[in-house]
Every structure is written in structure tokens, then in C-alpha cells.
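ok new one. same drill as before - C-alpha cells go in, u give me an amino acid for every spot. 154 of them this time. try not to just spam alanines like last time pls lmao
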């Protein structure tokens, strides 16, 4: 793998501003458990190992439901595990994360409208956007989670 620029080292002030903006969105109105699900689902779609590692660690630390975490990739097939509000947020997350494929369909937006106030709809969209921004930085710059390598079997 070719080394790529470390965004935090190359542009620390910009990264700090992005982090602060992200924290403002994450802590200002939506349930933390919902924000975690959004972050995990977007990270799954984007293939962001750094995002998955971070958001799974946070979820486990905060006592998230293991079944929800384990089955998130197949949430549509396990709808009993997720509230209607969570399902609407997950569908909107998928629609916006795959925007070029989905075009943000009306049915996904209608579900968001049914479960979120106008302000929450904007906040939800911005949370999804900032998670995607962090994922794109991580994947684009090949940022990897700090994990211990497993011993190879003999």
C-alpha cells in the first residue's frame, strides 16, 4: 500500500474544526444510540475500517444492544430489532450514503418526515453527511484502526 497524507498532520486546524462540527451535530438533539447506528451503517457501506472500529467501540462502551450491532448490515431483514424511527434513519443513511445510486428517494424521505421534526430532519441529514466526510477521509487517505495483529496459525 502506498503511503498517503495523514489529514490530521497535514491540516490540523481544518481537522480540528471538522471534529468540533461533528461533535456539535452528534451531541445536539438526536439520541446517541441513533447516531451510533447511523455512523456504523454509513461506515459499513463506505468500507471504513477506522469508522467501524471507532463506532463499534463507542457502542459497546455505552452498552448498545449486541443484536442490533451484529445484524445492522441486514437491518431490513431484522426489523423487529429496530424502532420505526431507527429504520427511517437507516434508510435515509443508505439513501444519502449511496446518493449517486438512489437520488434520495421520496419513500425514504417520507419515512424521515413521519418520525423526525423539521429540525431533526436537517440534523439527521447533517449527521449522515459528516459521518460520510470522516469515512471518505479515512478510506481516501487509508487511515487504519490501531488494532493488534492476530498471531498466524501454524
Amino acid at each position: 500500500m502506498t503511503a498517503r497524507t495523514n489529514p490530521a498532520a497535514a491540516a490540523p486546524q481544518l481537522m480540528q474544526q471538522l471534529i468540533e462540527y461533528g461533535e456539535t451535530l452528534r451531541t445536539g438533539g438526536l439520541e446517541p444510540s441513533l447516531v451510533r447506528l447511523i455512523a456504523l451503517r454509513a461506515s459499513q457501506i463506505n468500507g471504513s475500517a477506522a469508522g467501524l472500529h471507532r463506532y463499534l467501540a463507542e457502542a459497546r462502551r455505552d452498552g448498545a444492544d449486541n443484536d442490533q450491532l451484529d445484524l445492522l448490515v441486514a437491518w431490513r431483514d431484522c426489523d423487529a430489532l429496530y424502532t420505526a424511527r431507527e429504520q427511517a434513519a437507516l434508510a435515509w443513511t443508505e439513501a444519502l450514503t449511496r446518493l449517486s445510486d438512489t437520488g434520495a428517494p421520496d419513500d425514504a424521505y417520507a419515512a424521515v418526515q413521519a418520525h423526525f421534526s423539521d429540525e431533526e430532519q436537517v440534523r439527521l441529514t447533517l449527521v449522515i453527511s459528516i459521518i460520510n466526510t470522516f469515512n471518505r477521509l479515512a478510506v481516501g487517505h487509508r487511515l487504519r484502526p490501531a488494532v493488534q495483529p492476530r498471531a498466524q496459525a501454524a
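The two ends are 26 Å apart (CA to CA). and btw The chain has a mean pLDDT of 91.
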